[in-house]
Amino acid sequence: MEVILVENYSEMSEHAARLIEEQINQNDHSILGLATGSTPLGLYEKLIEGHKKRGVSYKHIQSFNLDEYLGLDQDHPGSYYTFMYENLFKDIDISMEHIQIPHSQPRLVEEECKRYDQVIERIGPIDLQILGIGSNGHIGFNEPGSDLNSTTHVVELAASTRNDNAHFFESLEEVPTHAITMGLQSILKSKRILLLASGERKAEAVKRLLSAHVSEMFPASHLWNHDNVTLIVDQEAYKLVSQKGSEEVAR
Ligand code: PGA
Fold first, then answer.
1. Which of 21, 25, 88, 247 has the most CB within a 10 Å radius?
2. Residue 154 near residue 69, CB atoms below 8 Å
3. pLDDT tens string 125-163
4. Do 151 and 186 contact (CB within 8 A), yes or no?
5. Which ranges of the chain have pLDDT less than 50?
6. Do 113 and 180 contact (CB within 8 A), yes or no?
7. Does 138 qualify as catalytic in the annotation?
8. Which residues, in sequence order, are bridge partners of residue 142?
9. 143 catalytically annotated
10. pTM for this predicted structure
11. What is the DSSP code string of 21-34?
12. Mutate to test the pocket of ligand 1, among 87, 164, 201 (most ligand atoms within 8 A of CB)
């Protein structure tokens, strides 16, 4: 795992945007794995800036989102479809036919999971997957205890995850109890993974991740079994690991 230590959220976002734009420069038909939540918001702002000011084009890019809440209307303000549309897709030139997000109200949930895996299989593999890390170590919505061999599946959200995400809703009660998520196996098939962590709220999770102890109870630790992971972490999120400054690379 390559660890890139940066000063703050803005630098993390900038660095991540640069890596994504490099990927697009190398292959303008790249397949990106996208994430939602507070962490990638700054990154998406930088990507929009790159598109508007420097003409970075997403015309041939395809994308897969990691997860979606179950039960919400696609257009509900809290859905991940709305999140992606409002925070990225509407301001870049990606074709809406090239974006994939699990359906939030499928007629048959199991069928939807299968369909999603088949589409990843057909279009993928994902060249560059963006990930945030949950305070409990989840990636996507793969909560502690998730099976390493899991493909896209339905999950019951951990209480801590619903709490963490309540600020996107009017109240905690409104946060859905279930979601569809790409499984750990689906995520680990990506060619390259970019994990982002910012702020004190993530310090405990980053410390646990960097102890390199792989455990089912801490899903992000499975990333140690992938040979192309870059963690971009800011000082606040890194502070329980070390007091050292400067950039550090550990493989
Ligand atoms: P956050 O969530 O970006 O809102 O902190 C990260 C995650 O749950 O993966």
1. 88
2. no
3. 999 999 999 999 999 999 999 999 999 999 999 999 999
4. yes
5. 245-251
6. yes
7. yes
8. 139
9. yes
10. 0.94
11. HHHHHH-TT-EEEE
12. 164
